[in-house]
């Protein structure tokens, strides 16, 4: 993985773990969409609001087994997102195959996450 994308991944993982709305606001593209493991779709504002409101809290959050394919000014990263989390007071622990879609910021501000799609790994499906 190239250095810029590796640094982006490190910053994103740390911001998600800490619920750092300010950093996530800079890392997510304005037209960001996140697809959760149960098929729900959140825009950037909704993604950030879960942290700002305290509805989503991570006790652990890891982004591992990452493979990145860069295509010019865009990239696709596929990896495993593992988390120990509480969402709306309920347990949301899990391991997910995650696909991230990234683009280089046109204004020279580095990489931005434009989308993420999460799927529960088979070992945790009923």
Automatic annotation (TrEMBL):
Name any one Pfam family assigned in the record. DUF4440
SUPFAM superfamilies named in the record: NTF2-like
DUF4440 domain ranges (all copies) = 6-113
Protein name, as recorded: Nuclear transport factor 2 family protein
